[in-house]
């Protein structure tokens, strides 16, 4: 569920979490916990962190976010991502398109699976602390790279912080709800349930921004709803609490995407360069999330649990959660690298197809009980996601 920042069509997978992706039209969007899922949610900016991505997924979902499921947006968003990628000192190696795509898929899938392992495998009951720690890892790495001159970031001025704070509050809520839902829901079901965020985002775009979507887009969104409902009905490990958290996460993911679009121009005007690249958003989202995360850790009484749990005395546990933070941020870097080496179309479709091996891995690695009906519902939802990506790209392509 922390890349937490980077944007986009979040990505999903993306995520959101996502490590956090900054959505333009969220497709699911891992900024971190999702940063992974959350990060794969919009093909424009990645809000990571996480991630759910950046899948939530930064996260991204994310940044994946994610945020989780980098799927789409318009040509302007894609150009801004490519411009951000070009500002990085990308390694000059052979077959960069294949390697960048592979790195993106591995980092986005691993982010969500590692978060699931921490929350369910280890039974770690402090999801807000996990998000907070992942954000600290992101801030540390990005700040170090920025100070060394390896990557460009905008100075965090007070004017920029004031403009971004409302978005960041939603972002933190997105990551936290992604963490809680991931604890109770298996990865495969979480992947298709996140599709509901696409429906809310598309509806919000039509209502608030008067954006018209093609018939195929609405058909794909309808198929996503059907698959989510069918999947929930046939889910052998159904957990009401997890579904409540995920429903809230979908609303927050959509709100993040729509709010981000509203404040982006103001945020750019508040910077010294007049631009705000993905890594600057990663740093901004994660830095601002630290005080709020500390308040929530104290308010939700996670401190008492942290003082008592033996997990924090295990070096391997610290290694795993540190890796989750690095993976969340990795979604941001690999997504920019991949987009720079390929096209927005390839990037979006790979983000959608990436959910298929992620779902299979989630079922196999965590011994998820399933049925033929539930498996078909999940497959139906995954294919609907691919259909949605293709329809949205066709919708946004010049005629």
Provide an overview of this structure.
A two-stranded antiparallel ribbon has the order 1-2. The protein has one domain (about 95-395). About 65% of the residues lie in helices and about 5% in strands. The protein is mainly alpha-helical and about 400 residues long. The protein is globular and about 50 Å long. Keywords: Membrane, Transmembrane, Transmembrane helix.
Short description:
The chain has helices at residues 75-86, 96-121, 127-147, 158-184, 187-193, 196-209, 215-234, 240-269, 278-299, 302-308, 315-341, 344-353, 355-365, 372-396; strands at residues 3-12, 40-49. The protein has 399 residues and is mainly alpha-helical.
Helical residues, percent: 55-70%
Mean pLDDT across the residues is 79
What profile does the largest beta sheet have?
2 strands, antiparallel
In terms of DSSP E residues, the strand content is: 5-15%
What keyword list fits this structure?
399 residues; mainly alpha; two-stranded antiparallel ribbon; 14 helices; 2 strands; 65% helix; 5% strand; globular
Layout: helices, strands, pairs:
Layout: E1 3-12, E2 40-49, H1 75-86, H2 96-121, H3 127-147, H4 158-184, H5 187-193, H6 196-209, H7 215-234, H8 240-269, H9 278-299, H10 302-308, H11 315-341, H12 344-353, H13 355-365, H14 372-396
Antiparallel strand pairs: 1-2
């Amino acid at each position: 569920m922390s890349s937490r920042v980077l944007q986009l069509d979040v990505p999903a997978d993306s995520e959101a979490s996502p490590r956090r992706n900054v959505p333009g039209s969220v497709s699911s969007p891992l900024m971190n916990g999702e940063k992974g899922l959350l990060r794969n949610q919009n093909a424009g900016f990645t809000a990571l962190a996480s991630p759910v991505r950046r899948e939530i997924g930064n996260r991204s979902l994310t940044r994946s976010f994610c945020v989780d499921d980098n799927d789409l947006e318009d040509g302007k968003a894609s150009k801004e991502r490519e411009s951000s990628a070009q500002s990085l000192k990308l390694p000059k190696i052979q077959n960069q398109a294949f390697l960048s795509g592979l790195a993106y898929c591995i980092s986005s899938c691993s982010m969500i699976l590692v978060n699931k392992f921490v929350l369910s495998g280890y039974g770690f009951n402090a999801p807000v602390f996990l998000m907070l720690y992942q954000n600290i890892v992101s801030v540390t790495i990005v700040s170090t790279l920025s100070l060394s001159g390896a990557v460009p970031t905008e100075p965090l001025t007070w004017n920029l912080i004031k403009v971004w704070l409302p978005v960041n509050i939603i972002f933190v809520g997105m990551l936290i709800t992604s963490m809680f839902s991931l604890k109770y829901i298996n990865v495969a079901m979480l992947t298709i349930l996140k599709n509901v965020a696409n429906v809310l985002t598309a509806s919000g775009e039509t209502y608030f921004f008067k954006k018209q979507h093609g018939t195929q887009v609405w058909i794909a969104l309808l198929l996503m709803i059907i698959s989510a409902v069918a999947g929930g009905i046939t889910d052998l490990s159904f957990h009401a609490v997890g579904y409540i958290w995920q429903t809230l996460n979908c609303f927050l993911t959509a709100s993040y995407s729509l709010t981000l679009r509203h404040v982006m121009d103001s945020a750019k005007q508040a910077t010294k360069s007049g631009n705000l690249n993905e890594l600057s958003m990663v740093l901004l989202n994660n830095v601002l999330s630290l005080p709020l995360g500390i308040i929530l850790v104290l308010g939700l009484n996670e401190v008492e649990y942290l003082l008592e749990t033996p997990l924090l005395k295990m070096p391997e546990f610290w290694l795993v959660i540190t890796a989750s933070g690095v993976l969340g941020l990795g979604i941001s870097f690999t997504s920019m690298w991949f987009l720079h080496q390929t096209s927005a179309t390839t990037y979006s479709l790979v983000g959608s197809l990436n959910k298929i091996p992620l779902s299979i891995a989630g079922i196999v690695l965590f011994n998820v009980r399933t049925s033929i009906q539930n498996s078909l519902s999940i497959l139906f939802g995954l294919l609907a996601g691919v259909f949605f990506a293709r329809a949205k790209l066709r919708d946004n392509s010049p005629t």
